[in-house]
Amino acid sequence: MSERVVVLTGGVGGAKLVEGLQQVVPGPQLTAIVNTGDDFEHFGLPISPDIDTMLYTLAGLANTSLGWGREGETWSFMAAIKSLGGEEWFNLGDGDLALHVLRRMAKDAGQPLSAIVQGFARNWGLDLAILPMSDDPVATWLETDAGLLPFQRYFVQQRCEPRVSAIRFEGAEKASPAPGVVEALAAADMILLAPSNPWLSIDPLLSVPGLFRALKDRRVPLVAVSPLVGGDAVKGPTAKLMGELGLQVTNQSIADHYGDLLDGMVIHQGDAAPGDLAIGVTDTLMKQAEDRRRVALAAMDLARQCRR
Q1: With contact defined as beta carbons under 8 Å apart, do 70 and 61 qualify?
Q2: Has this prediction a pTM greater than 0.85?
């Protein structure tokens, strides 16, 4: 029987790792638990950026040139919004709108996010489990030199330019893991942390008390794939954020941040390894499908070593 693999993930890097895992792990044995701290409402529609990136990537619909949204997108809706004086800082493509409109309708009919995502995945022929971290609202806010900013205002509108002094996850203390999350973690043979931003993409998951407790209670190895390559982040504000929080941009800082949750870490070849952890080394840049498969196999191999 194949190993049951659970990956905690958010953002483009996380979706790429899950795509790699999908090449080597049968769908029914693979679960992705996805960050929803980035979720927000825009133009009256519920947007789930990390979940949608996962869906588009695994369904082969992702816009690889932009790094977000759908391939072959058109923008008539945004042009009409702009002509009417509406906010244009967060782009919603014409095809992308389908997810958000259907999610609005389903939510208004009383469906939780987890059921909505399951329906989207099924319609696109995806057989792995894609679970939001929670069906309850959890919102990432950043304390910055430009004031207190919700995540998308900081990330998209302000392009991560404000200096960050602290991060908070509003609603996390009252949130419960989505259905299937705790069960997947309890049944896993290994748990992986994607090369997502630890502070902005993985910490929201860890802020959900029941999810964190399930990780602490696990009996299987937990391995992280570092988001750093050559002392910098491949994409996004990880390195900038670490500096602003007074941290050195190193794998050691990331290992220290995860603390005793972590059993091992996969790092990019040539990068300095953190101490006191099992280490796997490979080229962690994931440009092509074979790169994603290689990183997925490296993470799984390291988890097996930790288990022995």
Answers
A1: yes
A2: yes
